[in-house]
UniProtKB/TrEMBL annotation:
<dbReference type="Pfam" id="PF05962">
    <property type="entry name" value="HutD"/>
</dbReference>
<dbReference type="InterPro" id="IPR010282">
    <property type="entry name" value="Uncharacterised_HutD/Ves"/>
</dbReference>
<dbReference type="InterPro" id="IPR011051">
    <property type="entry name" value="RmlC_Cupin_sf"/>
</dbReference>
<dbReference type="InterPro" id="IPR014710">
    <property type="entry name" value="RmlC-like_jellyroll"/>
</dbReference>
<protein>
    <submittedName>
        <fullName>HutD family protein</fullName>
    </submittedName>
</protein>
């Protein structure tokens, strides 16, 4: 997969009972969330009401809370995960029965969906201007990427900014910050 910048105008936002969800990227092209025929999907959500997570049987998920707080009941275990902007990513099976109880007025999050058993990683990073950052190599990774929330990043000859906030690559990305920057770095591999 060659390096590819994704424009913010390509994102698709939809409303659901608990808030809004923005699909950042779905692969392969033409795949559908409704049909559950994708190899991977990236999204962000603004959750404004407590409630259940959707069933994504057959997929594994990774969730990063970007702002706000929530407590998760997972498969009947109340408080199984307490998530906030400073907590580690939460990984779970898409078939898990999860109920989120918001601890703040709203929660913004980042979601990575992959078929069950596919290796994945994601982490949030905040850097100051003129810092260099090198994405770690993940053995057998097929896809690397950066989702920019704020700031300006340079990856080779590509500018990642508010107009083009997502970059997808087949190799780890090397970045230079041009302003204070907040981003999610992710990698997706083969089935384990």
């Amino acid at each position: 997969m060659p390096t590819h910048l994704v424009a913010a105008t390509e994102f698709q936002t939809s409303t659901w009972s608990g808030g809004t969800s923005t699909q950042l990227w779905i692969y392969p092209k033409g795949a559908s969330l409704a049909e559950r025929d994708f190899d991977f999907r990236l999204s962000s959500a603004m959750v404004e009401a407590s409630g259940p997570f959707s069933d994504f049987s057959g997929y594994d998920r990774l969730l990063i809370v970007l702002s706000g707080q929530m407590s998760l009941t997972v498969d009947g275990v109340k408080g199984a995960a307490e998530l906030g902007a400073d907590t580690a990513p939460f990984e779970f099976a898409g078939a898990s029965q999860i109920h989120a109880e918001l601890g703040s007025a709203a929660v913004e999050d980042f979601n990575l969906f992959v078929p069950g058993g596919v290796k994945k990683t994601a982490a949030r990073h905040k850097l100051e201007p003129h810092q260099r950052w090198h994405q770690p190599n993940m053995p057998q990774a097929l896809v690397y990427g950066i989702y920019l929330r704020q700031g300006y990043l340079i990856a080779g000859e590509n500018l990642i900014d508010s107009e083009y906030p997502l970059i997808i690559s087949s190799t780890p990305l090397n970045l230079l910050t041009e302003a204070p920057s907040d981003f999610i770095a992710f990698a997706i591999g083969h089935r384990q």
